[in-house]
Amino acid sequence: MIDARYDIAIIGGGIVGLATARELLGRRPGLRLVVLEKESLIAQHQTGHNSGVIHSGIYYAPGSLKATLCVKGKEALIRYCDERGIPYDLCGKVIVATHEEELPRLENLHRRGIENGVPGLEMIGPERLREIEPYCVGIKALYSPQTGIVDYTLVAEAYAEDIRAAGGEIRTNHEVTAIEEHDRRYQLETPSGTVEAEYVVSCAGLYADRVAKMSGAPSTPKIVPFRGDYYVLRPGLEHMCRGMIYPVPDPQFPFLGVHFTRRMDGSVWLGPNAVLAFAREGYDRFHVKPKDLLETLTYRGFGQLAFKFWRTGFDEMYRDYSKTGFLDALRRYMPQLRRDDILPGPSGVRAQALGLDGALVDDFVVNAKGNTLHVRNAPSPAATSSLAIADMISTTTEKAFALA
Question: Whole domain around residue 284: which residue ranges?
Answer without folding.
Answer: 89-148+222-354
